[in-house]
Amino acid sequence: MIAKRAIFEGRVQGVGFRYAVKQLAMGFDVTGWVKNLPEGTVEMQLMGEEDEVEEFLKEIVEESAMAHNIKNMYSEKIALLENVKGFTISA
User: Fold this and answer.
1) Ordered domains of the chain (ranges, CATH)
2) Catalytic annotation, pick one of 5, 36, 69, 72
3) Which of 19, 30, 67, 68 could be a cystine partner for 48, CB 3.0 to 4.6 Å?
4) What's the angle, vertex CA 9, arms to CA 6 and CA 46, rounded to 5?
5) pTM of the predicted model, to two decimals?
C-alpha cells in the first residue's frame, strides 16, 4: 500500500477536471481526494496498491478525456492517508 500526492498544471480548473478524475477513480481500487488550489492547479492525494495508483495516474495523464488539458503533473510519495473512504472532491 502506498500514498501519493499529485499536482496537475494546465487548464485544469473550470473544465470539469475534478469530476472527471472522480469518475475515473471508480474504475480503480484507490481512495483519496482531489481539490482545486488557489494558484490554478489541482491537487490529488490517493492511496492504494502501488500498481493501482500508478495505473490510475497514467490513465489520467495519458488516456483520460482531460489528458489534453494537463501541461505538467508532479507526484511524490507521502504518508498513508488516514480516515479516507472512497474518492471524493474536496472544497
Assistant:
1) 2-89 (3.30.70.100)
2) 36
3) 30
4) 20
5) 0.93
Give the number of other Cβ atoms within 10 Å of residue 3's Cβ.
20
Q: Give, as one character, the DSSP assignment of residue 68.
A: G
From 5, 11, 18, 72, the catalytic residue: 18
Alpha-helix runs per DSSP H in 1-91: 17-25, 50-58
- Give yes or no: 69 in active site: no
User: Is 72 a known active-site residue?
Assistant: no
Which residue numbers in the chain have pLDDT < 50?
Answer: none
The burial of 82, by beta-carbon neighbours within 10 Å (0-12 exposed, 13-18 middle, 19 or more buried), is given as exposed
